[in-house]
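hiii, so i know i said id send this last week but things got crazy w the move. better late than never?? heres the sequnce for the chain we talked about at the cafe, plus the structure i predicted for it. fair warning i was half asleep when i ran it
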Amino acid sequence: MNLRKLIWNARCLTDKQRIEWYPAFWLIRPKVLELSPCWRELKILLPHSWVATNTGGSMFGGFQACLADPIAAMVCIKVFPGYSVWTRSLHLDFKYEGVTDLELRFAMTSEQEASIRMELRQKGRSTPIFEYAYYLADGSLCTKITASIAIREKGYKAKSKR
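okay and structure toks below
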């Protein structure tokens, strides 16, 4: 078992620790501010540190992408256990410079969840699109995130288009 799976499956860790200790996040050092017990809502602080700062003084977009990429998929893994889940596409729209700590805010609505569950029952797969964002310390929008998440039955193989 690799370290990523060990951390994700460790029963001795809290859900907040699973996110904060996720190996891909070690350099960016996120802090989970809020995580609902059902995993439908979360807020994560992405610190503005010297290592995360570009030559212009704002946060590297790559740091934002690193944290934003797996978040929707992690939520879907928890909400829809037993499926293979991964990020199909990720788009970041940088509205303003990230010159402060950033707060990532993610929420899955009950309507989204119901729609995904219906698709999973009918087709055995779903590819929902989630919109979430980073906010500056003053609460203003910094970066808009759009992620398409693949939720598939275990062992799913896409049909070849030749």
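btw The helical segments are 3-9, 15-20, 61-79, 110-123. thought thatd interest u
miss u guys!!
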